[in-house]
Specification:
This protein is an alpha/beta fold and 256 residues long. It is 47% helix and 15% strand. It is built from nine helices and seven strands. Helix 1 crosses helix 9.
Length: 256
Amino acid sequence: MPKTPDYFAGKTIVITGAASGIGRATALIFAREGANVVCADLNEDGARETAAQVNAKCSQALALKVDVTARKQVDDMARRAIDAFGSVQFLFNSAGAAFRRAKFLEIDDALIEKTFNLNVKGTLYGMQSVLPHMLANKFGVIVNVGSMAHRRGGPGSSIHYAAAKGAVVTMTMGVAREFATQGIRALSISPGPVKTPFQDAAATSPELYQKFLDDVPMKRFGEPEEIGELVLFMCSDACTFMTANTVYLNGGGGWR
């Protein structure tokens, strides 16, 4: 929670991947705190539903259909957010996916390109779209979604995804350090398994699902809201000395 009770009131966050899962949960948590929420997703219907839920909490929302792999669309997202709310203080790059599981020798050009376009370029474009505005205002917090996979390497199923998320974590650190004296903080979150549509799709067999679960000492998956509350804290005035870090949120697992 922020130190100041109304800290987020009237401030604006842009969330990619807002149609479901962690993105939607985070949108509703920021709405609870009185923030304006830009709900961006390739799934337009899902983004509109998230925006409707934000409005139901008496906060303002803007739903946008955005393909984060298209720089022009991401730049337009930032412009429309600023036009709608006057300024943007926070960016949460939640959009990401592994697309499909594959052993290392099965990773083809199409899979590696799709994975890096979404996870790496999508995060890069998001940051580049809002940073000039944030720098002009001498304030901004960016939170990107990494993964425990980057610590494990993803052997046997997701080296392509682990490599992409490793790039996200490194890029976040670089941005944080480059702009640390200019009012910008950048952080990443590396979750373990979380109950989301992405995780449901990833657990394509009971055996794989159980493998994920066996690796978590708490013996459960995380909830999207648990990630969202961490994003809120990271963006708040309660941890203004925190930047360049990735925070592991994994129930104690993900290290084997």
